[in-house]
Write a structure and sequence with these properties.
323 residues, alpha/beta, Rossmann fold, Arc Repressor Mutant, subunit A, 2 domains, seven-stranded mixed beta sheet, two-stranded antiparallel sheet, 13 helices
């Protein structure tokens, strides 16, 4: 009689779930489960589960058919919920939410992939836990859950029996963490290598930020840019930023000059402008609201700086992009 899998994971996809988050997570598991690329669920197993066996549509339109109905959560070592689009219809029905609550009561660890942290929090299952959210959805999270500050500067967070990831490629690294824990480091490395991922990353690895066109190998500059991107609505002074980084202001300015040829203040302005562009493209907020969220003194300040860079006002820029 063959030995049971060392790692058994049940996966609950939400309506309009993110396909990449699911695929990256599962591919690490399947590559670690068997020799070579044979994909037999020997060392670990995974099942897509749902209230019914009807196909569940992803955010890109492709659908996944569940393997099994929800059943008893104790047959799994972990239950993962895959989130996706956070607007529109309810992501999980009441039966699936109740299943997650039963899993928590049975002490089965819960995993939130992509916006799965939103689903777990709505179900009342994240109180007292730290959770990871993509920087892109930080404001969405704060608007919905005023009592909890998400972690947006790591790719995934492990807090006792709650595991959450920011989505995308980070779900592969979270799966590799689980494979390392239950099967072994060699299996985790093998999976990532076959997927053309250089190496396993710890949860503390910073999330990739906004594409602001500022890249540097200087560790101090990279940390400063990340800090600017994480909290654009309350920008630190350059002296305050230097203090947070544990260096003097002159040292910080010298590193920016050598690495990027600009001052930290100019870099901060570019970060906030890129955030403003991203919010304008989403089209869900007024220019006044965007000015407040991106650290400008007021809407007039944003309009003036935006026109200097783009040649048009934020409103005109948004209309041109949507047209």
């Amino acid at each position: 009689m063959s030995a049971p899998p060392r790692l058994r994971i049940g996966i609950v996809p939400a309506r309009r779930f993110t396909l990449a988050a699911l695929a990256n997570f599962v591919d690490v598991l399947r590559l670690a489960a068997d020799e070579g690329d044979r994909s037999r669920p020997i060392l670990c197993s995974w099942k897509v589960i749902a209230p019914t066996l009807d196909p569940v549509e992803s955010s890109c339109g492709l659908s996944v058919t569940p393997d099994e109905r929800l059943g008893d959560p104790r047959r799994f070592d972990y239950i993962a919920v895959v989130g996706g689009l956070i607007s529109g219809t309810q992501q999980l029905g009441p039966e699936a939410v109740e299943f997650l609550r039963r899993a928590a009561e049975a002490k089965v660890p819960l995993i939130g992939l992509c916006t799965g942290a939103f689903i777990l929090h709505r179900a009342g299952l994240m109180q007292g836990y730290r959770c990871c959210v993509s920087w892109f959805h930080r404001e969405d999270f704060l608007q919905e859950f005023e009592d909890m500050i998400p972690v947006t500067d790591q790719i995934f967070v492990i807090d006792r029996d709650r595991l959450t990831s920011s989505g995308g490629a980070s779900t592969a690294h979270l799966a590799a963490f689980l494979v390392d824990r239950h099967i072994g480091r060699a299996a985790a490395r093998k999976s990532l290598s076959i997927m053309i991922v250089d190496e396993a990353q710890s949860g503390e690895r910073p999330q990739p930020g906004l594409p602001i066109g500022l890249t540097s190998r200087d560790p101090l500059v990279k940390r400063a840019l990340l800090m600017m991107q994480q909290y654009p609505e309350t920008p630190l002074s350059i002296a305050g930023l230097a203090t947070q980084l544990g260096v003097g202001r002159r040292k910080l300015e010298r590193h920016f000059a050598d690495a990027l040829g600009i001052t930290p203040a100019e870099a901060g302005r570019r970060v906030r402008l890129e955030q403003a562009r991203a919010l304008l493209e989403r089209g869900e907020q007024s220019v006044t609201e965007i000015a407040a969220e991106t650290g400008f003194c007021d809407v007039s300040h944003l309009i003036r700086v935006f026109r200097e860079v783009e040649g048009v006002t934020p409103g005109e820029w948004a209309r041109l992009r949507s047209g």
